[in-house]
Please model this.
Amino acid sequence: LQVTTGRIEVSSINRFNLTTGSSCQTGATCQLVLSFRFSDGTEIADFFNLPTGVPTWNGLFTFSSSQPSFLSINSATGQVTTLGNTANGVVVQATSVPFSGPAVTES
Model:
C-alpha cells in the first residue's frame, strides 16, 4: 500500500446526462449520471450510486439548472425534478469544486 499526500483534482468530465431511459415528465424525479477523471488518471465511472442517487463524495460537484422554475436540481445529490414545460431549452450544469486549479464544468 502506497499513500501519497499530493492533491488530486477533477481533470475532466467524461459523461454527464440523465439516467438512460428516463422520461422525466412533469412532476417526475430523475437522476443525473456523471463519470469523470481525476488529475492522477483515476477514472470514476459512476459518481452517483444508482439507483439510490447517493454521491460517491459529498461536495465534489455542484449542479445547477438555467431555469430552476421548470427544472429543479438538488445541488448536492443531482436529483432532477421537472416542475413544468418550457419552450426554451434548459441547461443543466455540473461544476467540480476547485482546490487549487480551475473548476471543470460540463453542461
User: Anything to note?
Assistant: The CA atoms of residues 11 and 39 lie 5 Å apart. The chain has a mean pLDDT of 80.
